[in-house]
Amino acid sequence: MALLRKINQVLLFLLIVTLCGILYKKVHKGTVLKNAADDDSETPEEMEEEIPVVICAAAGRMGAAMAAINSIYSNTDANILFYVVGLRNTLSRIRKWIEHSKLREINFKIVEFNPMVLKGKIRPDSSRPELLQPLNFVRFYLPLLIHQHEKVIYLDDDVIVQGDIQELYDTTLALGHAAAFSDDCDLPSAQDMNRLVGLQNTYMGYLDYRKKTIKDLGISPSTCSFNPGVIVANITEWKHQHITKQLEKWMQKNVEENLYSSSLGGGVATSPMLIVFHGKYTTINPLWHIRHLGWSPHARYSEHFLQEAKLLHWNGRHKPWDFPSVHNDLWESWFVPDPAGIFKLNHNS
User: Fold this and answer.
1) Which family does the similarity line name (predicted)?
2) Mean pLDDT lowest for which of 119-128, 190-199, 217-226, 232-241?
3) What residues have CB less than 8 Å from 317, skipping those under 6 apart?
4) Which of 41, 145, 152, 308 is most exposed, with minimal Cβ within 10 Å?
5) Whole-angstrom distance, CA of residue 313 vs CA of residue 92
6) How many other C-beta atoms can be found within 10 angstroms of the C-beta atom of residue 125?
7) pLDDT score for 199
């Protein structure tokens, strides 16, 4: 009898423990679910869209990329993710420059570009061999370098951003357009600059209309060109239209037929883009690409106009870190000294 009573006591104890355990789990689960619900309710408010910005850092002009990055980061509160693209032998130097300077707080990824993808696609003859550097063609391969983003900004390295990059990112691309560029005919003061330095702003300046392949395109030589130094790209549409393959096709055709060259006006990267994107691109606000600052050391914009500009581009031979150049004070204010002491400003020779 005593044994039976002891067994009943044990069973009662176990039952009480089991009930307590069940009650605890229910209460605890309710708390966890409530916390999870609270977290989910906060997510839309806390989530901040990431703005991917692609910029190349070439060995001989790495200081340009760092100045551009500094100007972008300093003029926005947006969540920027910099994709800094370089060749294999420069990657460690890129990382050192960022991590051992005022740029150490930026959010960035270093991406290696393999120049082998360009094999057989570039003509060796050019009046400006610097335009044949592999990184000049990174803009053709954006979907291969950037995977998790729907929309991407690409910038040449010789730019300075004075506005909030969020504004450029918010550019609405028309349905079916894979990219947005600056139309050369929309550039403020373009006529004045053309008169001073003889710039081209039509397809005639980039394509050789003596060639049958170019004539057969049916594009008027007086069509306004655009500058691909600033691009807002829809990566999904880019892939859908096989833009990279189209660009490679025209690169190959140029190798075979010499359809354009940098001596004509713009450069070997611009011409195939003019063909592929003809009539199929959105235009960005002209103030987001004030260019030609590097075309002549004698042509200057007014100071008031430069203050209004959102982005300045020293395209051309005369770079702001070298001599001679114009408006280099605006660029130099964003310069980040090289921790390795390799890149130096040259304004005295």
Assistant:
1) Belongs to the glycosyltransferase 8 family.
2) 190-199
3) 128, 294, 295
4) 41
5) 27
6) 10
7) 67
